[in-house]
Structures are given as C-alpha cells and as structure tokens.
Amino acid sequence: MPAAILKYTVVVSLLIARVSFGQAPGFASPSGKPEPAAVTGLYNWIHSTADADRGWDFYRSVLNMQMASSPFGAAITPAGAAQPRPRAEGSQDPLVWDLTNTRGSRFRNVFMRIPGVDFGHELSEFSEIDRRPIRANLWDPGATMLILNVANLDETLDRLKKAGGQIVTTGSKPVKLHGTRAVIVRDPDGCLLELIESPAPGAAIGLTVANMENTRRFYEDLLGFKLQSPAGFENRAVKLAGLTRGEYRVSSALVPGTSIRLEFYEFRNIAGSAHPIRYRFQDPGAPQFQFRVRDLDALIEEAKKRGVPFVSIGQKPIERPFGRFIFVTDPDGVFVEFVHPRK
User: Over the stretch 79-121, which tens digit does the pLDDT of each residue have?
Assistant: First the structure.
C-alpha cells in the first residue's frame, strides 16, 4: 500500500486511535540482533460463507471487487487463469478435510481482488456438514472486521442495502470523525466491514481480543509482528462500533514484509455484555488469515512448544504441488493459515 494511503487509513480507520510506526523488523534474539520475522506476507483475508454465489454478488456489486485467480494460480491453471466462478459444484477433497478438520464436507471458494490493495479477499463455502452461522458484535473477543476505503459512502450504502447488507453503527448512519465519515456494516453472512469515505483505495483488518498479553505472545513473539499500543482507553467513537456506552483501545501492527495494517481492539465498560466467539471452520462468518511464512517446519515446532491450538489433523501440513499449508488458531479463536509456497 503506498505510504500516502497507509497514512490516511491510520488517521481515519476504526476508533481514531491509531499509532504511527515503522515496518515490523521481527523480534530480538538473545544476542540483541533482530531475527527475521516468521511471517513474510499476507495472501488473502478469508471468511467462510453460507453461499459463495451470494457472497460474490455482494462484494462485486457493492464494493467493486473483481474475480481473481488463486494466489497460487500459476501453479494450478495455465498462465494463472482465474478460477471458475463460485457456481461451480463443490468438491470433496480429503486434503481440504485434513487442513480444516471438516471431514465429509463439500468445499468451494471464490477469490477476489480488492481494487488498489495488496492482499486478496476469499470466500470459502462448506456444505454437507453441520454449520452454525456466527454474527459477532465488534466488542466480542474473536470478532473480526475488514476495513475498506470507498470513494462515495452514500452510494455504497445504497448498494449495500439492496444487496442484503446491514448497518451496525448506532443510529444506522455514518458518523463523522476528524472530518471523515465512516460506518460499520455487515455483509449477508454477518461479517463486519468498516467503510471509510476516501478518494484513495485502502484496506486494513481488525480483530477484537480478550487479553492483549496473550495476543502479543502469538503475533509478536511467535510470528514476528511489532505491536504498538496506546497508554489508555477512550470513548470518542463507541457509536461507530454500535455501542451507546463503553471504552476501547486500539493496538496496531504491520504484517511483516508489507504495509498491510492489522488492528487489535480491546473493549471495557460497554453497554451490555461481550461473548467470546469460538468458530468451527465450516461456520459462516468464520475468519481466516492466510500468511506466507519463512520456515514452515521451524514455525510448526515452535507453535507446538508454545501450546498453540492446531486445526489441521495431526498437526501436520498438507502437501500440494504449489505449496504446504497448515491451520492453527490465535488466542481468540481466529483461524491462521501458515503457507510455504513452492518455488
């Protein structure tokens, strides 16, 4: 993401409590010298969907996303051709079963390109398996949110309503913060999106955490992110999140090797109660990071030592001609995929 766009997103994205800092260099070794971060990039932000056709129509018509090939498309189809549209029949793939612990299911997905953004968006649909839709509130630990800049917020909201989306922000209309208009909405699966009015493209990803120290041990100590946290909590933008009362704090980090921003939200003293979310892979709304990693085997061994929960069967990666893949969960149950591509 160009520096100007990143700066704009830092200023106007959720809750207006961003911290400016340089690219994450990785954590320090015992000798004091920085070690390379375990994560080296982000391929896609993914969530499971009840209906890939409906999801694709929503993101295409409302947010102008475009059909894309798999990040590994050149290894799958000639010249990296785009994948079939989601109306293709789902397949039964034992490797997907082992990767996601969804034995017996059918699986299909669709890849999308977010205009002007350095990572993709993917929808995954599981069928012929028990599913439970998840509609998290932003203040629930485990909740996640895709943050997007849009050129015309009013026109985007008109399209969103026609496509089955829902406004979450208190009062069901955008709020103005520091001269910028923003609103939080849901897609047809209930997944949260923050839409920020901006002439420049941009995107970030947010997730709500129960315990920032646990979050630091996972994202910073294990994966090599460099988190920055403000000293205290504030309450200026609780209506944006859909609350009438409460306080929040926003920590932030860049995905190592990129300018892609992650935000980590903590809430307290809210009007109501928070409910920790625990997803199954097949549940519509289940969020997933797809990180490129430097050394998959070393990362798996370190994750085991730290007691990180694994999703993939046998704590073993699946093997494809184009790469090796394995899923774990972060401390709040968000699915995290480690990918080591074939050269």
Answer: 444 454 555 567 899 999 999 999 999 999 999 999 999 999 9
- Cβ contacts of 30 within 8 Å, gap of 6 or more: none
Domain count, the chain: 1
What number of CA atoms fall less than 13 Å from residue 142's CA on the CB side? 18
Q: Which two tokens stand for residue 253?
A: 């980090």
**From CA 27, how far away is CA 92, in angstroms rounded?**
40
- Inter-residue contact 127 to 279 (CB < 8 Å): no
State if pTM tops 0.90. no
Here the contacts of 72-81 (C-beta below 8 Å, separation 24 or greater) are 72/320, 72/322, 72/323, 72/341, 75/321, 75/322, 75/323, 75/342, 76/322
Question: Residues near 253 by Cβ (< 8 Å), separated by ≥ 6?
Answer: 24, 219, 220, 225, 226, 227, 228, 261, 262, 264
Provide the residue range defining the domain that includes 297.
3-341
Closest CA to 284 of 88, 129, 113: 129
Return the H-helix or E-strand segment holding 268: strand 261-268
Contact (CB, 8 A) for 134 and 277: yes
Distance from first CA to last CA of the chain, Å, rounded?
Answer: 25
CB distance 121 to 65 below 8 Å = yes
CATH of the domain at 206: 3.10.180.10
* Per-residue pLDDT reduced to its tens digit, 316-338: 999 999 899 999 999 999 999 99
